[in-house]
Amino acid sequence: MSTLKVENLSKQYGDVVALEDVSFEIEDEFVVLLGESGAGKSTLLRCVNGLTEPTEGSITLDGEDISGSQTDIGMIFQQHNLVEGVSAYLNALTGSLNRVSMLRSMLQWQSQEDKVRALEALETVGLLDEAHQKVSRMSGGQQQRVGIARALVQDPRLLLADEPVASLDPSSAESVMGYLRKAASEHDVTALVSLHQVNVAAHFGDRFIGLREGQKLFDVGRGELTPELIDDLYGSVETVSLAKQASKPDPKQNGQQERAEPADIEQEIEA
To answer: pTM higher than 0.90, yes or no?
Structure first.
């Protein structure tokens, strides 16, 4: 399990302050970033992923400075960013691109280890039986689960997710979050996820960091996320259901299915 440490992080775009003096440290946790649009959640994730350079402060993963796009940090996007013309399996396999050349990837010359890892990742998110289905024929929730599988194939030390269920209906959002939490738990990966659905966050998060206008408003544990904090974060006009007594989901029970090993998948591994 890896440790992410953010110290005195600030980011400015000209005269606009996106983040101001944000600090926290996470390890072995499923942490949710909360805040209104423009609060700095996406900027923070982009800084952690090495896609955006901070104006001030430092970010370390296991004591090493983060700089440039990080191959050991898995990123799950709101819009999936999948290759729609190919199968769920081949999309998951693209998570190994940091380990193979573009030519080998185009010819599907990945190692057997990577092929097995792709199938195991699809099993983790409950899509092994759909491994050869084109993602263009899948629902939005299934496509997001393929995105989670792709991130797992990357073999990351840290999982980041930027509003991964923002475009999904409530049932699909709950399913995807269950699989995301299951993936982090089974693969021993620390996770940092931004959400705007507070009730979903309250059900799945271990810890909650609230951002308002680029500043950290609170950093609390599961039992400390109160309606008062939420009102302070979003404003009392917003009505929020916290589901205060929602039990922490068992990541090994969320969407778990029996292992399936179709013959055509086995042949593809051996190819």
So the answer is: no
